[in-house]
UniProtKB/TrEMBL annotation, chains A, B:
<protein>
    <recommendedName>
        <fullName>Alpha-acetolactate decarboxylase</fullName>
        <ecNumber>4.1.1.5</ecNumber>
    </recommendedName>
</protein>
<keyword id="KW-0456">Lyase</keyword>
<keyword id="KW-0210">Decarboxylase</keyword>
<dbReference type="GO" id="GO:0047605">
    <property type="term" value="F:acetolactate decarboxylase activity"/>
</dbReference>
<keyword id="KW-0005">Acetoin biosynthesis</keyword>
<comment type="pathway">
    <text>Polyol metabolism; (R,R)-butane-2,3-diol biosynthesis; (R,R)-butane-2,3-diol from pyruvate: step 2/3.</text>
</comment>
<dbReference type="InterPro" id="IPR005128">
    <property type="entry name" value="Acetolactate_a_deCO2ase"/>
</dbReference>
<dbReference type="GO" id="GO:0045151">
    <property type="term" value="P:acetoin biosynthetic process"/>
</dbReference>
<dbReference type="Pfam" id="PF03306">
    <property type="entry name" value="AAL_decarboxy"/>
</dbReference>
<comment type="similarity">
    <text>Belongs to the alpha-acetolactate decarboxylase family.</text>
</comment>
Length: 273, 273
């Protein structure tokens, strides 16, 4: 999320303080998961998205059986997914946000979740100048021996500034994630209250998922959000963390996944994220 | 398994038709697993072995809860593991083979298993001239859309020739798998009846496991075996296969794993395997 953006990204739309007339209702925590706490689950692999395999996937309801905290995308990479307290939101490139009220009829080609239960809770202020290092210092202070494990991250509070992007979706079948990313919308939110949800993954996830931090954001009023590119907190935010020593993954057995070349492109993934 | 051996390997011991006075008893299939059929499970990652993190692990009994067919190694990389019908054997570099009769008191730092149930059974003759291509053709003929999935492989029959190696173990803590491999013993078995057990893994396992074919062999009399480097069948052998679309992995949360650099070295892994 924190890498220099590829040149093509500069064409992206920049907006701030977009007005959304319809506020989404506040929804209670939903618990569908049958998974043990703090285990990592993902459907498909990021390399399949890089190869443009995004036309089918599992129902969101199946995803929610495996966790209540996470992120991902939707069919044809149409928007960013955030899974917060078992509720799923689709954050679209036009700035609108849709609550997935019928998880059994909406599908995802790639997503990752955990049944999150924080084992470490603290408050932290992040200035965003060298955010990657700041986040690493924060996480390492709580999990000094956790660098080889996936960590689940949740931050709640007021953010002075968030730079976020939302993918607009594929224009044609099998269009690569790199091509989709070139058309993404980019937003800057200021003085915004909300929640960041995501993970920090070690290098061994290369090809499977995003190495490093990967955070999605949604505002408390559920009107603004996206894939986080950078941010700065407004004073302290609440930070909840857990370490996920078990990893499980389910792969598509039909369709585009089987046809994809799946040549791991670590640099390409980093450029997109 | 089929790569050109590194120079250091040439120092390895070469023997054939070793005599083993004590024959291991034939053991019935043991079923401890609670895992669903044809799901892939692994403990730790191959990159941890590359980094020499091999001094601790899970009990073999825990491994067997996750599958009855597979391979791996033992504490300090002392020998090759084969899991056949839920029975586990340690194949040592001195040519001896030990049946693990007490799985709860023997541990593994790295192993992978499945609860194997073949969905495809056939007979095949493999000449071994270009074995990698021959095996791929065989597997692809049964799973034409399976190239992006892990396949479980079992071959039973008479082999005209098998070239195998067994790792002798670490000489000091944290010694790398590459260094251990330089001291491995290499054997050639001729006209030998037995079973090959293993997997073919796609490129996305890079860093986690061995990309390509990975087979271990044990003779029917349980006197000879090892990590397969090459082979030729004597006529047809029985080939059983299944496709494993679910992947699960458990990582060590203490000890050497946390200290290891875990920098993925795909070429190094290939050279060792």
């Amino acid at each position: 999320m924190l890498q220099t953006l590829a040149k093509g990204f500069q064409r992206s739309l920049r907006q701030s303080s977009i007005h959304h007339p319809r506020q989404l209702p506040f929804l209670p925590k939903r618990q569908l998961t049958t998974m043990a706490k703090n285990e990592f689950y993902q459907y498909s692999i990021i390399t399949a998205l890089m190869d443009g395999a995004a036309s089918d996937g599992i129902p969101i309801s199946t995803l929610l059986e495996n966790g209540d905290h996470g992120l991902g995308t939707f069919i044809d990479m149409f928007g960013e997914m955030i899974v917060l307290d078992g509720q799923v939101y689709q954050m679209k490139s036009d700035g609108s946000i849709v609550h997935i009220s019928s998880p059994s009829t909406t599908r995802t080609p790639f997503a990752c979740v955990t049944r999150f239960e924080a084992t470490s809770t603290s408050k932290a202020s992040l200035k965003g100048a060298d955010l990657k290092q700041e986040i690493n210092q924060l996480l390492d202070s709580h999990f000094p021996t956790g660098r080889n494990h996936i960590l689940a991250i949740r931050m709640d509070g007021t953010f002075a500034r968030i730079r976020a992007r939302t993918a607009g979706g594929q224009c044609k079948p099998r269009e690569s994630m790199m091509a989709v990313a070139e058309r993404q919308s980019e937003y800057t939110f200021q003085n915004i209250k909300g929640t960041m949800i995501g993970f920090r993954c070690p290098e061994w996830v290369t090809g499977l998922n995003v190495v490093g931090h990967h955070l999605h954001f949604i505002s408390d009023d559920r009107q603004q959000g996206g894939h986080v590119l950078g941010f700065q907190t407004d004073g302290e935010v609440e930070v909840q963390l857990s370490l996920l020593p078990k990893f499980s993954m389910e792969l598509p057995t039909e369709g585009e996944f089987n046809k994809a070349g799946l040549v791991v492109d670590a640099e390409g993934i980093a450029a997109c994220e």
